[in-house]
Amino acid sequence: MNREDLMSSPVITIITAVFNGEQTIESTLKSVARQTYPNIEYIIVDGGSTDRTMEIVERYESSIAKMISEKDSGVYDAFNKGVRAATGDFVYFLNADDYLYNETTIERIAATINESPEINAIYGNILRVEPVFGIEQVYGREFNANDFIQGYMPPHQALFVKREMFNRYGHFDLNYRSSSDFDFISKLYLNEKERMIYIDETIAVFRLGGLSTHYKTRIIGMRETEQLIFKHFDRNVDLSATEIRNNALFRHWLESILQENKGITAGLKDRKIQRIAIFGTMNTAHYLLKDAKIEGIEVKAFIDNNKYMHDKEINGIRVVPTDWLSDNHSSIDAVIVSLESNNDQFVIKDLENKYGKHLIVLSWKQLI
Question: Which parts form a coiled-coil structure per UniProt (predicted)?
């Protein structure tokens, strides 16, 4: 990139908030340091770490524009400090246990901004990694108002926002402990959706198991999100009820294993079901696979609508699209839907409409 191109290209500010992140911070730092795009302002906001975090950060000093290390009141306070220190055209938040997908990620974002100078925000996909089962799944799509009403939004690890938007709509509200990003992104969507664009590209790798996936934080986040959905979209929703119900179901599942020494798929044999496909590929699908193996139920395939999962394998079992059932329904007796959300009812209805003459379709919840 010559000097003229460099001067006309957007400056991308990347903000990493961290506290005692010595186990993961280096992969985050490396992913920024290896970017091919030169116009990056990298800001580290450390909350006063007491481990080796800052020692590791200092090794990458040449890639860092600003370092702030002082006590804060949480991740959103740290984000706000980063925004106030930023001078870039667009701002991006990269968590200290996540990392950019590859070395050209920021270059591709900058090219999109150059092609569409009128945009105020751009977002893409994330690769979610669940370390216990080794699950990797690309997550992302173009979001609409109905997604927000259900509590879904573009993940901030995939979102780049023009810096002036924080002056226009305010910084992260510290009254929210877990969902201040939902608050800000909702305001951004409602006011700027015509100037927000989605690109079908993976931006970052997001490690599940951080703050947002802890149970207490999830419940707090859901209750805050319920309040914010009412505030921004004037809808009353009950997100936490689904979480509480599912935890009760998981408890019954565990009790069945510990007290009766049998899994929840044992009852399938009473219905002459010996061969199944599992719809979904996240944690509950993996629980079902282990349960089925114990009970002697054969899992022939995983079914997933996510195109990025197709033709991958989970424990040697192929992941296939839904239309696999058209030619293969005779090879299985039932489809077990592993989704935890209430959207499982829509999936079940759709599968029954298409394949109900040939197959039994059940939710994992019906097995408990």
Answer: none
For the chain, which residues make up each domain, given as ranges?
Answer: 3-233, 239-366
Domain 3-233 has CATH 3.90.550.10: yes
CA atoms of 203 and 109, how far apart (whole Å): 9
Tell me, what's the pLDDT at 3? 53
Provide CATH code, domain 239-366: 3.40.50.720
Question: Does this chain's domain 3-233 share its CATH topology with 239-366?
Answer: no
The pTM of this model reads 0.91
- Over residues 48-91, the pLDDT tens digits come to 999 999 999 999 999 999 999 999 999 999 999 999 999 999 99
